[in-house]
Structures are given as C-alpha cells and as structure tokens.
Amino acid sequence: MNEIQALLTLKKMPNLGDISIKKLIQTIGSAEGVLKEKKQHLLQIPGIGLHKLKSFEDLTLKKEVEKELNFIQKENIKTLHFQDKAYPFLLKQCIDSPVLLFTSGNYKLKDRKIISIVGTRKVTKYGSEFCESLIEALQPYDPVIVSGFAYGTDITSHRAAIKNNLCTVGCLAHGLNQIYPKSHKRYMSEVESNGGFFTDFTSTDKFVPQNFLRRNRIIAGLAEATIVIESAIKGGSMVTAEMAHAADREVFAVPGRTTDALSAGCNFLIKNHQAHILTSVDDIITNLNWDQQKKTEKAPQLNLFENLSQKEEKIYQPLKEFGKLHIDVLAAHCDLPIYMLSSLLLDMELKNLIRPLPGKYFELI
Length: 365
Hints:
Elements: H1 3-12, H2 18-28, H3 31-36, H4 39-42, H5 60-74, E1 78-81, H6 89-92, E2 100-105, E3 114-118, H7 125-138, E4 144-147, H8 153-163, E5 168-171, H9 188-194, E6 195-199, H10 211-222, E7 225-228, H11 236-246, E8 250-253, H12 264-271, E9 276-277, H13 281-288, H14 310-322, E10 325-326, H15 327-334, H16 338-350, E11 354-357, E12 361-364
Parallel strand pairs: 3-4, 3-7, 4-5, 5-6, 7-8, 8-9
Antiparallel strand pairs: 1-2, 2-6, 10-12, 11-12
Helix pairs in contact: 1-5, 7-8, 10-11, 14-15
C-alpha cells in the first residue's frame, strides 16, 4: 500500500475529517503507518476516540479505494498530498485544508499572486460588468483568478480571466468525474488550458448541496485575498468571506445600494469591518501592495553575515533577490512556519535589517 492509497483509505472513513487525519499522520509519521498502527496506540492520541476509529475495520473501503485509484490513473488525475512541496502553500496554512487534493489542468501557483472572486449566482448587469472590468484592470499584475465554476459571478470571473490571458482555477464541489452545472462543460477545456480544476472530492463521493460549503474553504484558502462582488446577507459567498477572514486573509467587498438585496451581504461585510471597500482596482493594489514600481535604491550589502543566524540568512537572501515580499511568499521561500517567521522578522526589524510594509510585506533597509 503506498501513501496515496493509504490517504484515500483514511479519507474514505466517514468519522475521520481532515484535521483528525493530519493529527494521526503527524503523530505516527505517515498514512501507511497510521493504518498499520495498533488501535490502542492510536487511542492515546488526544482527540482520537473509538468513534473516529470505528471504520478502520470496514473491508468495503478497499473496493472504493481501488476504484478511485483506477479512476485517477485512467483520467491522469494529479494528486497532491498535504505534505507535498507542490501542495498550494497558502492553502496548507489552513487548519482544515484537504489532506488530499485532486487536480487537472495546466496551472502554476508557486510564487504567484492569487485572488478568489465569489458572488451570487444571480449576478446583475452591474455585478458582471464590475467583475469583468476589475479583472481586465488586474491583467498587468498577472494574478491567478480562483472561483467556484458555478453560475453567475463564478463563471463570469473564469471567462474574464481567460479573455485577459490569466490563469484561472475552478474549485469543484464534486469529483473530477463530472461537472456542475452541465451547461458549463463547454468552458472546461479553456479553463484547463489556462489553469485547471481543484477538488477534494473523489469520483465516488455523493454530490449533495452541503458539498458547496466544504468546497468554499478551498476557494478562500488558495488565495491571499477574497473578493465578494455581490451577495445577499446569507449564502455561500458570505461563508467564503468568513472563512477567508478567519484565516487572516484580506477580504474585499463591492458596495451597493442599501435597497438592493444582492448588495446586503457586501454592505454588511464593509460595515462590520470584515472587508475592505472595493470601488476600483486601486483598492486591491494598495491594500495588497501590488505596485510594480522598481526599487530605486538597492538594499545595502551585509558585510558581517556572522551576525545573522542561519534562519535569518534564509530570510535575508530572498528579500535581497526579489525585493519586498509578502509574509506568506517569504515563508514559502524560507520553508518556515508563519509563527516562527513572524518572530524572526521582529528580531531583524529591531536590528534595523528589515522594515514592515502595508499589506504584510517586508523589505530590506
């Protein structure tokens, strides 16, 4: 049994979620090791009880896993283990990120600006025109546009991205064996050529309404910012915005008239300081620090590297090479967790080596 097969087995167990599976793997060392470990040892792990291990002896899981492995191989599906280097870095920072992602297409996310765009399925002319003009204005910054491939705002975002030669990723609420809505099948090849599809659902998982809420954590987790174009006071877009806010990501919302039901959600987010007001592309560029101006002065060379710790040198080098970097991107370059990087950055700031910038960016002094 290889690691992907073992992960699929754990994933198919109905009483185990992503958080519990990660806890098991991080304690034992691997998914294969978890399945081989004695139950009494697993029960000693905090938060793991008999209820969660109930399905370990379910022999029917083997057939489901074999069926899924055959599907993955036949359809050339790419699988991303949450411990893989290729696993999307920002998504990996989310506690409930999928232990296994199934992807297709021609996407490249490493060191890219990534934003998610969500909104109502009943998008108005105002909403669709704003969305299209916003993505067109973002084109010089070459961001990846993430959305849910559903009706309304989602498909408007994907199509506008393709029109402007931008990478776009559709996050699905079902396995890669189908597409919803079926009318969007005609857009699949363009999306896969310009990006791809992500899901954590297998081909044998049931496609039920609650899948959309589970899918939304991926939309929010993949991006450094989530943009809400139009939304009622309740709905999937509001859930996605809440997930992004909880993950300490930036959220933007397009304001609307107080009498418009489809602006009620956006106005609520802005009023309660859960989102930046978004009236033009400049709001995004300013808050995310996406300016394309070249540094007029080169960072001074450090003569005494012996004064830096090994971890501080790992931080210094990418800042020297690339200029200012967002803390998430810097963490990826340094291969350090955010909590540790934040502490080191503070130490370096006190040494007058770096300075913080708006939008969680840092640069050398």
